[in-house]
Design goal:
By secondary structure, this protein is an alpha+beta fold. It is 41% helix and 20% strand. The strands form six sheets. Strands 3, 4, 5, 6, 7 and 8 form a six-stranded antiparallel β-sheet that branches. A six-stranded mixed β-sheet has the order 10-11-12-15-16-23, sandwiched between helices. Strands 1, 13, 14, 17 and 18 form a five-stranded antiparallel β-sheet that branches. Helix 7 packs parallel to helix 8 and helix 11 packs across helix 16 (504-529). The two termini are 54 Å apart. Keywords: Hydrolase, Protease, Serine protease, Signal. It comes from Chitinophaga nivalis.
Length: 558
């Protein structure tokens, strides 16, 4: 790191000397380049003196890391320094690939359990099942080992092995297994199917290398297997984005060749670029819906925004995240990298959907959303009004689905997961994923299972009341309203059994999804969940109503 700083210092000094000698610039205190060179010189001198004379030793890497982090606080959260040991994470973001065992884990108390096993993965080949408890790794006990440490040990170069001991979740029998790590490729398209008999459905989780080709292949296979399709949904909910080029490839599936999908503009004008489709589309006419929510970001928003701007399809769901920034990776010394925001991207109508203004900070360093008064209006191909500065606003909005507090507690404490494990080992097989239902008798069995479990929790209303009581005490109003607050508190006290019954439908669905996952893996879980997915049902209704679909694509929104 010190060698790196010395190089920077010499480079800055040389640049200053050359420019001064050539007379190109007349440096003064306001000159940006002079300020950069000056402050690099001060920084290097400051660190040299501090390191030489400070009473205690200062670890260079730790001190410099803090300096880098302080600089990054002035930028957006997507600009970051990538240390050498974190390069695998950067690779995974771009490729969706990593070296590991192909399983998800969760730590609950002293032990860590396997929660998901990817089909065909090293864990799957070794016979490991969801619910199995990790007892030993590489000859060392896994008891009380942090989840992050276990996850780190499970990853590694393909071909390397890891000796592990697992405990059966019900019998307690321990089994030794040798796991050979492989290259794990997380699927960008994790489910393709048909809903409501004749509506195609594709769920895309990320925009990594070749993900666009995967979506095209999934779509073409859907059409081949189901020639009577009335429409198709592309589900980008929860998709954080990824590679911009892949977003263009996905858009190209549904729009003609040589169509502008996105453009980028930044400080370095030579890097500004228009991205157009380059291939023949797979289908330009089948009605299309793109599903979004607040976690749909970046490349996902490029696809949704371009389909909306070109009036190729409808966007249904909730407003997207609003990340209209493009990052470029720059090589740094000692195998480190800088991931830096270099441009903003613009959809075909010319709008930038970036929702947070990182360039203008409040006095306390905080940033805010772009105010409505500064958002500009643009028009789609059909003349519909769309706005910039706030993510992608759906053509048809739906309310997000919230999970009850009792359900959150049951998930967090792994009671739904553990009951599914018990169910799996007592039922050799179940109905197909889309047909499986938990009977009332089985739900009653789940209630009995919870009798000895502690799933106490506070409702949001109780939390709000507690906050109000504390505020009243601080402001000396409590004594005057104490009796009324106590009466209200008694009325609000919840009965856990009643909460279970009141939220039976929701909890039953969560149980069904978890149980189905044991028999049919993640595709089965997704297939089961689509039956009660509000966004999917709303989209299917519109795709079945062609008059409504066409009206929404032509009506002028204000």
């Amino acid at each position: 790191m010190r060698a790196f700083l010395n190089k920077r210092k010499k480079l800055a000094a040389l640049l200053l000397l050359l420019l001064t000698t050539a007379g190109i610039f007349a440096f003064n205190e306001s000159d940006r380049y002079f300020q950069i060179a000056k402050n690099l010189d001060i920084f290097a001198a400051f660190y040299r003196e501090l390191n030489t004379y400070y009473v205690d030793d200062l670890p260079p890497e730790k001190v410099m890391k803090k300096g880098i982090e302080a600089m990054l606080e002035e930028t957006d959260p997507f600009t970051d320094f990538i240390a050498e040991e974190n390069l695998d994470d950067l690779k995974f973001m771009a490729t969706g690939k990593y070296g590991g065992v192909g399983a998800s884990i969760n730590t609950n108390g002293e032990w860590t359990s396997i929660t998901d096993v990817y089909e065909g993965s090293p864990m799957d080949k070794a016979g490991v099942k969801p619910g199995d408890i990790i007892v030993n790794m590489g000859g060392k006990s896994a008891k009380n080992l942090p989840q992050e440490e276990i996850s780190k040990q499970l990853k590694g170069a393909p071909g390397t092995t890891l000796d592990m001991i697992f405990r059966h979740p019900l019998t307690g029998v321990e089994t030794a297994r040798k796991i050979t790590r492989e290259e794990i490729n997380v699927r960008a398209v994790n489910y393709t199917g048909v809903v409501k008999n004749d509506i195609g459905y594709i769920r895309m989780t990320q925009f990594t290398e070749n993900s666009g080709a995967m979506v095209r292949q999934a779509f073409e296979q859907l059409k081949k297997d189901n020639p009577g399709l009335k429409g198709v949904m592309l589900d980008l909910r929860g998709n954080p984005g990824g590679l911009l080029d892949e977003a263009v490839v996905v858009a190209n599936i549904f729009v003609d060749k040589n169509k502008l999908i996105v453009s980028t503009k930044g400080k370095v004008k030579n890097w500004d670029r228009n991205y157009e489709t380059t291939e023949q589309p797979a289908d330009m006419h089948l009605p299309l819906v793109v599903l979004t929510n607040h976690s749909s970001a970046s490349a996902a928003e490029i696809v949704a925004g371009s389909m909306q701007d070109l009036d190729r399809g409808l966007v249904i769901g909730q407003r997207s995240y609003g990340k209209g920034l493009v990052q470029t990776t720059r090589q740094l010394p000692y195998n480190t990298k800088l991931k830096v925001t270099t441009a903003k991207y613009y959809t075909p109508s010319g709008r930038c959907i970036q929702a947070i203004d990182y360039s203008h900070r409040n006095d306390d360093g905080s940033v805010e959303l772009v105010p409505d008064s500064l958002r500009k209006s643009f028009t789609t191909a059909n003349g519909r009004t769309v706005k910039d500065g706030g993510g992608i606003e759906p053509d048809v909005k739906s309310d997000p689905t919230f999970i009850s507090q009792v359900a959150i507690t049951l998930i967090r404490k792994q009671f739904i997961f553990d009951y599914a494990t018990r169910y799996y080992y007592s039922h050799p097989k179940i109905a197909p994923a889309t047909a499986f239902t938990l009977t009332d008798a089985e739900f009653t069995d789940f209630e009995h299972y919870l009798d000895s479990k502690d799933y106490s929790y506070k409702t949001r209303s109780e939390d709000a009341l507690e906050t109000f009581k504390n505020t009243a005490k601080r402001e000396k109003y409590y004594d005057a309203v104490a009796q009324e607050l106590e009466t209200l508190e008694q009325k609000m006290k919840h009965d856990k059994k009643q909460d279970l019954l009141k939220n039976k439908t929701e909890i039953k669905r969560l149980l069904e999804e978890e149980i189905v996952n044991r028999y049919y893996s993640q595709p089965g879980r997704i297939a089961r969940s689509l039956a009660w997915d509000n966004d999917v049902n709303a989209a299917a209704a519109i795709l079945h109503d062609q008059a409504k679909y066409k009206q929404l694509l032509t009506v002028r929104r204000q």
